[in-house]
Design a protein that fits this description.
By secondary structure, the chain is α/β, with parallel strands linked by helices. The strands form two sheets. It has a six-stranded mixed β-sheet, with helices on both faces. Strands 2-1-4-5 form a four-stranded antiparallel β-sheet. Helix 6 links the parallel strand 7 and strand 8. Helix 4 crosses helix 5.
């Protein structure tokens, strides 16, 4: 199966010396891939490069076979994303926020706005101004915007930030449903590894700008660990015990 996202040896270094270094991975149709790592590991920087918000110093990114350095618009045409903050127009209703976003998609089907509001659980609040929403509700609205054009790849940066337990479950079920029923792929960065364990097919672990491990839940199970424990074992590997020298009496 052809990958819909290919990241090949991308690198970006900032003036402060931080960045990401020689990262490569792929995402296929219907896959849910998690990106995990400490604060400052480079997760958001990586997502920004994939979505064209930051230009890599080196390396190549392909979306649906299109080199984004040469055919960015063609590659991004089937991608939805929420990076960092859930930006919404607070003086507008949830419905009008999506109606405005819909102007960028001339072939949007009639009724699609109501459909995505239903998907993320905001139908009862569609006429309320977004400024009255909680952080979690704004997250849901941002997700609705990402899903609006029926993308084949959705890139999400901390999508459960600010959500209560019910909201986390709802969003997780929505992602799983879209992946299973429509073959939508998801690339998700998150600190909520325990919650993501129920969702992801594969994962990558970033540390200090490098992709130090790629795997799946079977790798953790083989070590008799939860995904969170497995993550910690990769970020903070146990130091080998020093051999005891000869003893003298």
């Amino acid at each position: 199966m052809e990958p819909i996202l290919e990241v090949k040896e991308i690198r970006k270094q900032f003036n402060n010396g931080r960045g990401i270094y020689d990262i490569s991975f792929e995402t296929g149709k219907g896959e849910i891939v998690g990106l995990f790592g400490p604060n400052g590991a480079g997760k958001t920087t990586l997502l920004k490069m994939i979505t064209g918000l930051i230009r890599p110093d080196r390396g190549t990114i392909y979306l649906f076979g299109n080199n984004t350095a040469e055919q960015f618009e063609l590659g991004m045409a089937r991608v939805g994303c929420v990076i960092e903050a859930a930006d919404v127009y607070e003086y507008m209703s949830a419905y009008d926020n999506l109606k405005l976003a819909g102007r960028f998609y001339p072939h949007l089907e009639k009724g699609r706005i109501d459909q995505v509001l239903e998907l993320v659980g905001l139908s009862p609040y569609k006429r309320e101004k977004a400024g009255h929403f909680s952080l979690g509700m704004k997250q849901r609205l941002a997700l609705a915007g990402a899903l609006l054009p029926e993308p084949q790849l959705v890139i999400l940066d901390e999508p459960t930030n600010g959500l209560d337990i019910e909201g986390m479950v709802d969003i997780r079920q929505t992602i799983k449903q879209l992946a299973d029923d429509q073959g939508t792929a998801f690339l998700i960065s998150s600190h909520m590894i325990g919650d993501m364990e129920k969702l992801v097919d594969r994962f990558g672990i970033l540390k200090e700008g490098r992709l130090i491990k790629q795997g799946n839940k079977r790798d953790a199970a083989a070590e008799e660990m939860t995904l969170e424990q497995y993550y910690m074992s990769q970020i903070y590997p146990a130091k080998p015990k020093e051999k005891e020298g000869p003893s003298y009496v």
